[in-house]
Amino acid sequence: MRIAIVGAGSIGLAVAWRAAQSGAEVVVHDPDPGSGASRVAAGMIAPVTESHYGEAALGPFMAASADAWPGLARDLEAASGLAIGFRDVPTLVVGVEDGDRAEIDRQAELYRLTARNVETLTARAARKVEPLLSHRVRGGVLAPEDRAVDPRVVHDALLIAAERAGVELRAERIDDLAELDADQVVIAAGCGSASFVGAGGAGGANDGAASDPGSGPDFPERHRDYAGTATDEGCLAARSEHSDAATADGRLRGRDEAASEGARWTLPVRPVRGAVLRLRTVGDQPLPRTTVRGYVKGHPIYIVTRESGEIVVGASSDERGFDRRTGTAGVVHDLLRRAIELVPEIAEYHLDEVSVGFRPGTPDNLPLIGRLDSRTVAATGHYRNGIALIPATATGVAALLAGDDKAIPAAFDPLRFGPFARQRPNDVTRRQRPENPLSDGSSRLVQPGAPCADPIPGSGQRSAAPSASAPESRVPAGSDKTESRGDENGHEAADDTSTHEEADS
């Protein structure tokens, strides 16, 4: 089988590597491999602390992927010869005010529904776990089973492993999937995935033609400045026929127009911009020995450390399109101030880098993974969880390409929105479902305490379903729309150059 993959980010390369190991002939297309998401991501693998209200369908898949990471790390290091910085590192979630602590307590109830070990700590106990914490910290929650990895090295290792497995890498931009000489095509292009539209009849020659940029009366004015344009680096910015604002019935404006013009599918991926800071210790300065996440006066922040002495602090979040400027002084100030309020020692570290990238978001914050037509598969829209979901996505897509149509959870169906929605018997749409953590995102409702279906075939991973009694959070994930506020989900900052790359975490 000949497989073409559009996007040489960590997701695309992982799929390519696994497919090549299965005997496929694989070619990966990307104008600038390694310049995108993996350069900005923090690298948290956090099935507990990345649990969010309204995203219950992601939980089992995230848990299975986290459990698969140790094996993937061993295989990847053996295949590439690189140490990727994978390690078990607990996450400590803390707050500095009573309101912050109340929010953490609400989140803790959701964390416990992951069926993993979660410990509630007093302020004294939290500082015993992490001695560098500020004395202002009011207590927190410990997730001892979380992990972390260095995304930049992971990408380098995947590139080496894929090439050694026989994958061919072509440094070129793809504008029309019909041009690709392949039996199967995988779109793993991050925010750039929105530039492809399934045109013509089923299996027609125009499958995957890029859309006309900025056309149609509903194309939002604030997106016209990047629709179909090339960046300074020569990389195509995502072209889109839809707004990033969902309507009441879950559709995106412009998708009806695309359907009426004969398109068979589009990918509703939007750029969610975020700034991330990288710092480094000087001399024998101490490092936090945990991943620290928390709230400072209601604003989320995270601090991730590497054994090399690097510290990653993030992240801001806004939806202003592909503005690749490296963050305002206010953004840097806010991130540093919040981090220092939790870990005062950070004030003494050296600021090495300010990075800006784009998380590939979707209307429901769930990835777009699955078959678009008989020739085309989507593996995109991972938003803040690209690195964390590498194992599950690569395994699932490789199985799908091999003919297993049930390899990916139905909740991630890339045709689940608007006029392109795939109709199933007794399907329960997002609009019809109650907005609570009870639903697993498929066509059924999970009973409290019932196990969810095996998210990765053969993995044996099962996760308890969220309880209907879980409280609603007053700080919803991804709710920030301005640069000045941090976003705990922002650690999956993605591409600031190449839009053919997909890896968020």
Automatic annotation (TrEMBL):
<feature type="region of interest" description="Disordered">
    <location>
        <begin position="203"/>
        <end position="226"/>
    </location>
</feature>
<feature type="domain" description="FAD dependent oxidoreductase">
    <location>
        <begin position="2"/>
        <end position="197"/>
    </location>
</feature>
<feature type="compositionally biased region" description="Low complexity">
    <location>
        <begin position="457"/>
        <end position="477"/>
    </location>
</feature>
<dbReference type="InterPro" id="IPR006076">
    <property type="entry name" value="FAD-dep_OxRdtase"/>
</dbReference>
<protein>
    <submittedName>
        <fullName>FAD-dependent oxidoreductase</fullName>
    </submittedName>
</protein>
<dbReference type="Pfam" id="PF01266">
    <property type="entry name" value="DAO"/>
</dbReference>
<feature type="compositionally biased region" description="Low complexity">
    <location>
        <begin position="207"/>
        <end position="216"/>
    </location>
</feature>
<dbReference type="InterPro" id="IPR036188">
    <property type="entry name" value="FAD/NAD-bd_sf"/>
</dbReference>
<feature type="compositionally biased region" description="Basic and acidic residues">
    <location>
        <begin position="480"/>
        <end position="505"/>
    </location>
</feature>
<feature type="compositionally biased region" description="Basic and acidic residues">
    <location>
        <begin position="240"/>
        <end position="258"/>
    </location>
</feature>
<feature type="region of interest" description="Disordered">
    <location>
        <begin position="240"/>
        <end position="260"/>
    </location>
</feature>
<feature type="region of interest" description="Disordered">
    <location>
        <begin position="417"/>
        <end position="505"/>
    </location>
</feature>
<keyword id="KW-0560">Oxidoreductase</keyword>
<dbReference type="InterPro" id="IPR029752">
    <property type="entry name" value="D-isomer_DH_CS1"/>
</dbReference>
<dbReference type="GO" id="GO:0016491">
    <property type="term" value="F:oxidoreductase activity"/>
</dbReference>
<feature type="domain" description="FAD dependent oxidoreductase">
    <location>
        <begin position="266"/>
        <end position="399"/>
    </location>
</feature>
<dbReference type="GO" id="GO:0005737">
    <property type="term" value="C:cytoplasm"/>
</dbReference>
<feature type="compositionally biased region" description="Basic and acidic residues">
    <location>
        <begin position="424"/>
        <end position="434"/>
    </location>
</feature>
